[in-house]
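Structural prep section.
Before we set up the soaks we want a predicted structure of the protein with PBG in place, mainly to decide which crystallisation condition to try first. Input record follows.
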Amino acid sequence: MKYLIGTRGSQLSVAQTNWVVSELKSENPDSDYEIKTITTKGDTDARPLFTINQKGIFEKEIDKAVAEKQVDFAVHSLKDVPSILPDDLILGCVPSREPYNDIFISKNGDTLETIPEGSTIGTSSLRRVVQVSRKRPDLTVKNIRGNVETRIKKVQDGTFDGIVLAQAGINRLGVNVKHTSLSTIDFPPSPGQGALGIVCRKNDQITISMLKKIEDQNTRLAVESERALSEFVDSGCRFPVGAFAQVNGENLDLTVVAYSIDGKQALIVNKSGPKSNSYQIGKEAADELQRKGVNDLAKDWRAKLDEWNKT
Ligand SMILES: NCc1[nH]cc(CCC(=O)O)c1CC(=O)O
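Run finished without errors. Recording the tokens verbatim:
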């Protein structure tokens, strides 16, 4: 059987799709796979990510191609996939996850703690903006666009003194760049960070069965609880929320953090339970965030976005 795979044309997307193909080939040696790259709004719109008023800016066009049978399935970075998919599509497979932590890259090997006062840090994620500002309020945090390799070049050419990226991105690209890991206590990652999401058609049983052979059950359960949170609390590029879940034996431990847009407040919730209740654990964490006033935190994010638009 031959399968057509949709993905973005970025080096990272192609690298992670090639990895998926190698995993699938190992389990389905008689199948063939061809990659079709598709441009998304996130690839062409140069504005700061969180000002673009569209969920799924890095995946919508690709999932449309799946729905219209132009491709058989799509490979995404899971954190770029909205928690609610169109009715005719499903998250058909979640393979094993890369580490979900963020990393800090600077030109001279400085860490986030040692980089000189007043340095300029680049990120396109509001979550990272508030997390950097909480650790180092003296630093200037500015919007950066471009793919992983472009951002690293902007540190090396001095455009930025430092940047924050996902560990998973440089791992998958095999980029050998000096960096320091950022703790998930200070930098809880985006829900689903480090994981891949393979989207296919709900009624395509042949493709689903083929994909399931590389499913990683514990990763599925962990991201299910992180994404359940996103269903109830707006997150991603537009609202600073961090979440990470760990499966320990039969248990699942979830930590979620929501920030005020100025970074001065942080609502932290820890929830644990049987890993089979992953979705419920995520929902309970969201409910507790609501009780702690998360909606009040979001109310002034638009003013901050307008301010950011001018940077
Ligand atoms: N759209 C940004 C994006 N989507 C996925 C990753 C990294 C890989 C991952 O989280 O799986 C990145 C880059 C980054 O955050 O550094």
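Observations: The mean pLDDT is 91.
Flagged for discussion at group meeting.
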